[in-house]
Design a protein that fits this description.
The structure holds 2 protein chains of 2 kinds. Helix content of chain A is 22%, strand content 32%. Chain A is α+β, with helices and mostly antiparallel strands. Chain A has 9 helices and 20 strands. In chain A, the strands form 4 sheets. Chain A has a 6-stranded mixed β-sheet. Chain A has a 6-stranded antiparallel β-barrel with strand order 15-18-17-16-19-20. In chain A, helix 2 (38-47) packs across helix 7 (221-230). Chain B is of the alpha+beta class. Chain B has one domain: OB fold (Dihydrolipoamide Acetyltransferase, E2P) (Beta Barrel). In chain B, 19% of the residues lie in helices and 38% in strands. Chain B has helices at 26-32, 79-82, 86-89, 114-121, and strands at 3-6, 11-16, 19-24, 35-39, 46-47, 52-58, 62-66, 71-76, 98-102. The longest helix of chain B has 8 residues, at 114-121. Chain B is globular and about 35 Å long. The termini of chain B are far apart. Classes of the chains: A alpha+beta, B alpha+beta. The A-B interface holds A 32-33, 37-39, 42, 222-223, 225-226, 291-293, 295, 315-316, 318, 323, 345 and B 33-34, 36-37, 39, 55, 57-62, 81, 84.
């Protein structure tokens, strides 16, 4: 990709002024770290409130009399049973059941839904959804929004101080608090927190108010990655891909039982067959022994030196205090406590299969 | 009297009596961010210029540190095993990486002095 194609955040000037160091991610120039550094940013989010500019992600509004039918075809989901304001993690699957993207769908009204998609897949997702929508009385509208996340135990208090009350909103619910705003209680850190899509002009005001609060610190993509990895959350393109289905990815919990049994979503037959025969590999947490991080791409071996799988994400967990990783291993080995070995530059590092998350989720569920 | 040299790969060498103490520059540690692990070389290892001598790992990524000249490792900074953040807090001091006995001191002539390095990083 040439530099000219790189997309820039609408609030880039604010990040520059905050001293951000930028790097490329999914075609965007993104703040990777701020002067505090990844370690402090990570820990600050778990202790106070971290502010993330995630405007590289895309919001779509799906509406119309057949919006429910469209979503039920596009995703392994029963959109019709979602209550208004309820959010659900779901996927776009290909015909083989492979994960094209993971998405959050929130019901805004009887015939209106918000779909939040990953940056790297946004263009393909839009094309896919528009193509499917031709067969339904439904509209797909990409929204031009700044998208912010505020995460951590003091996120709600910081928003309240900035004039946004979040009181009754629970985890995995989303509302439209103001015109052209969308706010959900969700995130990618394992902490209580919110994601807010809003027009650029409003965003400048909100960011200014939030940053007056000493509890709030800008957090870059580097800490976003270590936070989500400790929380056991998947990054599409690494931990889940079009070559992995929800059964192998240990994400079947996101698909309701009735949908698994009789849903007519794309990839349904292939996914049912995969569940039936059992996936050859499963996604697991991996805890490397010692201090040396084990990173994406490292091959895994069993005690006899036979290939056992591979690492899809790995790094250091600042809150866990040790290296953390996840990857895919042969299903018979996919039990917490199993000891495997990761090849890191020719050295075999012992890694134990670990339950996820590495740091407990602290969602506000009720 | 020790002489300090710099490389385009953001390393520094402090040379005295045929022995170089090698580390990464403050600029380099800033670029890498918080280090969480340093893979140190074994004493006695012979390195050619350009060989990977040390791997420094930040939260996010692993980066190679190359031998700036030929030589033999005579000591690695063991303190980094328990406290890799010394490289961040004292890159040109207590955060040194290894000491090597130089095989060919004439190679030093190809390295930069501090003024040239400062110009290099702009």
């Amino acid at each position: 990709m040439t530099g000219d194609d790189t997309k820039h955040l609408p609030l880039e000037d604010i990040h520059v002024a905050a001293g951000a160091r930028f790097g490329a991610f999914a075609g965007w120039s993104m703040p990777l770290t701020y002067p505090a550094g990844v370690m402090k940013e990570h820990l600050h989010t778990r202790e106070h409130a971290g502010l993330f500019d995630i405007s590289h992600m895309k919001l779509f509004e799906v509406s119309g009399p057949e919006a429910v039918s469209l979503l039920n075809r596009a995703c392994p989901l029963d959109a019709g049973v979602l209550e208004i304001s309820q959010s659900k993690l779901t996927f776009f699957l290909n015909e083989a059941g492979g994960i094209l993207d993971d998405l959050i769908v929130t019901r805004l009204g009887d015939e209106r839904f918000m779909v939040v998609a990953n940056a790297g897949n946004a263009v393909a997702d839009e094309r896919h959804l528009r193509e499917l929508a031709k067969g339904f009385d439904a509209r797909v509208e990409p929204l031009d929004r700044v998208f912010l996340a505020i995460q951590g135990p003091e996120a709600w208090a910081a928003l309240s101080r900035a004039g946004i009350e979040t009181g009754s909103l629970l985890f995995m619910h989303g509302v439209e608090p103001r015109k052209n705003w969308f706010m959900s209680r969700s995130g990618y850190t394992g902490e209580d927190g919110f994601e807010i899509g809003l027009p650029k002009a409003d965003a400048r005001g909100l960011v200014a108010k939030l940053l007056e609060d000493e509890r709030v610190l800008w957090i870059g993509l580097a800490a976003r990655d270590s936070l989500r990895l400790e929380a056991g959350l998947c990054l599409h393109g690494q931990d889940i891909t079009p070559e992995t289905d929800p059964a192998a990815a240990a994400l079947m919990w996101a698909i309701p039982k009735e949908v698994r049994a009789s849903g007519a979503f794309i990839g349904a037959d292939a996914l049912r067959a995969s569940v039936e025969r059992g996936p050859a590999q499963k996604r697991v947490g991996l805890k490397p022994d010692g201090r040396q991080p084990v990173r994406a791409g490292a091959a895994l071996f069993d005690g006899d030196g036979k290939p056992a799988g591979h690492v899809t994400s790995g790094g250091f967990g600042p809150s866990a205090g040790h290296p953390v990783a996840m990857g895919y291993v042969a299903t018979p080995l996919a039990k917490p406590g199993t000891r495997l070995f990761a090849d890191v530059r020719g050295t075999k590092i012992p890694v134990d299969i670990s339950s996820l998350p590495f740091t407990p989720h602290r969602y506000r569920k009720g | 009297m020790a002489t300090t040299y710099f490389t385009e790969d953001h390393e520094w060498l402090r040379v005295e009596g045929g022995v170089a103490t090698v580390g990464i520059t403050d600029y380099a540690q800033e670029q890498l961010g918080d280090l969480v692990f340093v893979e140190l070389p074994e004493t006695g290892r012979k390195l050619s210029k350009g060989d990977t001598a040390v791997v420094v790992e930040s939260v996010k990524a692993a980066s190679d540190v190359y031998a700036p000249v030929d030589g033999e490792i005579i000591e690695a900074n063991g303190k980094l095993s328990s406290d890799p953040s010394l490289v961040n807090s004292a890159a040109t001091g207590a955060g040194w990486l290894w000491k090597m006995k130089l095989a060919d001191e004439s190679q030093l002539a190809g390295l930069m002095d501090e003024a040239a390095y400062k110009a290099h990083i702009g």
